[in-house]
Amino acid sequence: MVEEWGVRVSGTVTRMDGARRVAVPHGNYTMRESSPETFTLTGDGLPTFELTLTELETYRQARELKILEGQWP
Questions:
Q1: Is the pLDDT reported for residue 13 higher than 80?
Q2: Beta carbons of 40 and 48 less than 8 angstroms apart
Q3: Rounded Cα distance, 48 and 32, in Å
Q4: Cα separation values, 45 from 6, 32, 40, 42, Å
Q5: Which residues pair with 28 in a beta bridge?
Q6: Longest dimension (CA), the chain
């Protein structure tokens, strides 16, 4: 079973896209585990992003990304 979480991005979440850093737009996303170290964020009308576990934990601790639904380990 693929685990899934509802998340809200409300801060300045950025991620590397090749050699450049791009911002993840504010909004509500569904997050799914892509691999043990990466997670995919998708949302209606929003671009799809992948975050590493390290990025995810950094933004969660900074309160820029909040888990809304689902049991997070």
A1: yes
A2: yes
A3: 11
A4: 15, 17, 15, 9
A5: 8
A6: 34
